[in-house]
Amino acid sequence: MFENLSGKLERAFKTLKGEGKISEINVAETVKEIRRALIDADVSYSIAKDFTNRVKEKALGQNVLTSVSPAQLMVKIVNDELRDLLGGDTEDINTSGSPAVILIAGLQGSGKTTFSGKLANYLKSKGRNPLLVAGDVYRPAAIDQLKVLGEQVNVPVFTEEGNKNPVDIAKNAIKHAKANQNNIVIVDTAGRLSVDEEMMQEIADIKKAVSPNEILFVVDSMTGQDAVNTAKAFNERLDFSGVVLTKLDGDTRGGAALSIKTVVHKPIKFVSNGEKMDALSVFHPDRMANRILGMGDIVSLVEKAQTTFDEVEAEKLRRKLSKNQFDFDDFYKQLQQIKKMGNLKDLMGMIPGVGKAVKDMDISDESFKSVEAVIQSMTPQERANPELMNGSRRRRIAEGSGTSIAEVNKLMKQFDEMRKMMRSFNKAKGGRGARMPNMPFRR
Predict the structure, then answer these.
(1) Residue 4: C-alpha distances to residues 162, 249, 262 (Å)
(2) Is the peptide bond before 440 cis (omega within 30 degrees of 0)?
(3) Over the Cα atoms of the chain, what is R_g?
(4) pTM assigned to the model
(5) How far apart are the first and last CA of the chain?
(6) What does the DSSP 8-state code read for residue 293?
């Protein structure tokens, strides 16, 4: 989402490269470029001006150490200010009590219902027992959509066919949750195409009736400053507890994410960046600031890896590596592990320095399909014994996988290189073995 902003900020910092010290002149020029970059990212002028004034004040008030260049110092100051602009500290949701009630609000089309399903999936992964509540009685497909999402994440959905009173539905859902040991109740409320009095009154009535632990306002980050204005209107009436930004994987300038905390004084609690039910993340202001400035987000990458890490399979792989027995079955399993972690381009963007390199590249999970097809076209014996792959076998596999002999040969060559690298790494480790480095097939 912040690719354009990241590039423009990088160009702004170049103004200070080669400078031996901080001065009013070079800081003013850099700050001017930073302000322009923020406004281009759809941040309001007043917020951008306040931000850059703070940056300028801090920059001019510091002496540059001999080991730190002016450009490095400016990056550090901007990073700190971005973190504060985005909220400062990470804030998770309040799920105390049984059941805890979470009210989901927002305009129609913002992604409320999809987020409700994702939140249920997230809370379930944390050991909770959520119940989804279909409180949108106006949009014809809303209830059916929630039922489908509930089935996908294996979470029950409470509905009352024929009942058109969302307040009663929410109250009855809580009774149902207590009777069925559901310790989290997620109420998906109705949205409108625009803010109106009827909508606001309805959500206010639900809030009064169920006393929710959290009211999460879901906003489409692609709507820019309109999202910020809508959030302000909702907050004035509902006093919600947190913001959820959806569609962060879209082609958007990011102004909503950068402005919303300042305007409504409420934290961003979650970000959603895909259609899959596991494409939901707790929002970390410090990590987002790092990514905006091209520093990557290794912590989030490691956390994603840990959620898909299978210790039993890893130990089996370690033993095979120690005996130099790595084969295509192992390779295939590693590909599946990588895919479980999420969008490949997003993952690569978390690695410091890599985000900029891949921003214009067309990288997707589709890159794995031809590799998977080739491996699946092999016999069990061929997968376990790659050295059997002669010319006739490669020809048969190419035909069976819908690829070319050249693609099969390329995969075989890369696989051989990987095995040699692992063999040498294993020797360097004294034969103790190691986990396979995740190396996707290069096209």
Answers:
(1) 49, 13, 22
(2) no
(3) 26
(4) 0.64
(5) 25
(6) T
pLDDT in tens, 302-315: 555 555 555 666 66
Contact 121, 155 (CB under 8 A): yes
Q: What is the pLDDT of residue 102?
A: 94
Task: Answer for the pair 9, 35: CB distance below 8 angstroms, yes or no.
Answer: no
Long-range contacts: 431-435, Cβ < 8 Å, 24+? Answer: 431/322, 432/322, 433/318, 433/319, 433/320, 433/321, 433/322, 434/318, 434/321, 435/314, 435/317, 435/318, 435/321
Distance of alpha carbon 195 from the chain centroid: 28
CATH number listed for the domain at residues 100-295: 3.40.50.300
The dihedral over CA atoms of 116, 120, 123, 124, expressed in degrees to the nearest 10, equals: -170
Top CATH class of 3-85 equals mainly alpha
**For residues 142 and 134, is the Cβ–Cβ distance under 8 A?**
yes
Give me the half-sphere count of Cα atoms (radius 13 Å) on the Cβ side of residue 120.
Answer: 34
Averaged confidence pLDDT in the chain = 77
Q: Are 188 and 206 in contact (CB under 8 A)?
A: no
For 37-89, the three-class secondary structure string (H helix, E strand, C coil) is HHHHCCCCHHHHHHHHHHHHHHHHCCCCCCCCCHHHHHHHHHHHHHHHHCCCC
Extents of the domains making up the chain: 3-85, 100-295, 302-428
What fold does the segment set 302-428 form as a domain? 434 Repressor (Amino-terminal Domain) (1.10.260)
Which residue would you say has higher pLDDT here, 144 or 255?
144
Is the CA virtual torsion 116, 117, 122, 127 positive or negative? positive
CA distances from 276 to 117, 126, 185 (A): 10, 18, 21
How many CB atoms sit inside 10 A of residue 175's CB? 10
Q: Which residue has the higher pLDDT, 379 or 371?
A: 379
